[in-house]
Amino acid sequence: MLAPSSVARAPRLACILRPMRRIARIRDGGWLDMNLAQQLISQHLVEGTPQAGEEIAIRIDQTLTQDATGTLVMLELEAMQLDRVRTELSVQYVDHNLLQQDYRNPDDHVFLRSACRRFGLWYSPPGNGVSHPVHQERFGRPGATLLGADSHTCAAGALGMLAIGAGGLDVAMAMAGEPFHLRMPAIWRIRLEGRLPEWVSAKDVILELLRRHGVAGGVGRILEYTGPGLADLSAMDRHVIANMGAELGATTSVFPSDDHVRSYLASQGRSDAWRPLAAEADAAYDLEEEIDLAALEPLIAMPSSPGRVERVADVAGEPIHQAYVGSSANPGFRDFAMAAEIVRGRAVHERVSFDVNPTSRQMLMSLVQSGHLGALLAAGARLHQTGCNGCIGMGQAPATDRISLRTTPRNFPGRSGTLPDRVCLVSPETAAASALHGVITDPRSLAQPHPRIVEPRAPALAKRTLLPPPERGERAPLEKGPNIASLPALDPMPTELELPVLLVVDDDVSTDTILPAGARVLPFRSNIPRIARFLFEPIDPRYAERADAALATGGHAIVAGDNYGQGSSREHAALAPRALGLRLVLARSFARIHRQNLVACGVLPLLFVDPGDHARIGRDDVLALRWAGVEPHEPALAIRNTTRRQTLPVRHDLSAREQRIVSAGGLINLIRAAGRGREAGEADQGAPRA
Question: Of 18, 109, 211, 640, which one has the greatest count of Cβ atoms within 10 A?
Fold first, then answer.
């Protein structure tokens, strides 16, 4: 048995967050001694006062959409009658729905390509790779803002970008030139000291933060990494850490743009994109924490949450049936090369499916040139196409109730495509070592020297397969297959609500539970009426049927615990329930992106004043509420449980803007109303006067 480290002996909240001096040094509308996150926000601030908790709006330079979310975004742009995107750069990736079992996925690829011509986006076709590493390779720019219709957009913080995941409608608005609204996050400094030991890597750094703080520990915060430990972390190591900041619930993560970033951009032939960025010497933070990299050891997130982190040494010996290397959470050359060197000249255990998912066409070419791909294949690896694949449940599903070790960012129940599954999150070192032995293996126990990985100085560059937008706007037709349905019409919020509660759920319900992903469901992502039939299937297969019945009498409500809607940015998890009559979600707390998606779809997100009142509402109880006339300075409301004849205090935290969106029945309704108002005004101005 390996000796436990200081990390293992530490309590779960081993490092108490220390409040720093308040960020109050503001002069002439700007901060003094700014940290990096503040610099990025101040350079893009359009509206609001940047104090923690206040609503602000920022200008967006770049956007990212992928095929599981982009189809709705393009339909939303069509509904807005947009002529051409108004960002510096927008890119549409095809990386999630790659299986071509029938016409639906390839039809959507055709539609997305036509939308790129129509609206002026770059297009990354199937086979180019996962959006996040490809965007870092080809488009990432220190100092820029990036809004993506994917929760792991925050990975671009590795380059010194302010990169935020959001719902598709928010991204569509940014593409139309509108600012992005959010609550100003608290800035949480993570100071890194020391150097990582052998057999420990960047994945273990973010798993350590999840071990300390759980899946909601970063809600309402930006994680800003500083300290001498950064000298040991490459740009792609930082990508690993920034990517999984989403699993902490963080708004985003930010790293400085330093020599590591400059070297990375130079290797990609983009030296001109680099600029130095760092916190100022006396910058203040809301919170501060320290991680001694030298004290870390291999960690593992056990089924079925990224927050269930243990020492690998404590669970070693458990049999496994799958080991999976790749995904946006471990997309770098080092990650694949490390796995290749561990298994070089050996064979993986006969019981183990050793799945290798190259994350970009460029990465696959580099692994071929370096000989690492050959080592993986010779050891028994199964090579899959470049894309998200098993990470989103698109193939590579594990066997029933068998352990699957994955370098993916998430292990929510059933996300793999198998129920019940036992997916664990690990580093490439742990995945490869375990593949050799057929059991969970601490890589420090391997009887071999620690591999020394040298990044290629001139990696193979894949530029020609990215398709640029047309130089001039084209009124190109949108090519819609038979599975692409128009967006559902959403009516305004009624003055009086009387709603049956169709579901009462507990804490940490993920968007994978609300609307499962995978090869069976995601092909309907451009067909809201059809995809709605899968809602809440893991916990109530009759939810859609019961929602249909409630729709005839005015809709329904859902009651939830803490962190409702954690995980993916997919707005389908808000729009599809809204199409079936969801009007109200009453929760202890919400995950950031899902809350924004509910508002954008015209669903009222309310909060318990007393968290214990969650137990006072049961399934099929009827809740009554009057919504009209609520002002921003009056967040207190009362909701009546007419079934139990009880009145419960609840509250909202909606800004005035968000209240208008909910009352209108959703953001598109508000946009259309504003457009009609402008048209009427223009008509009045142009009419002849008597």
Answer: 211
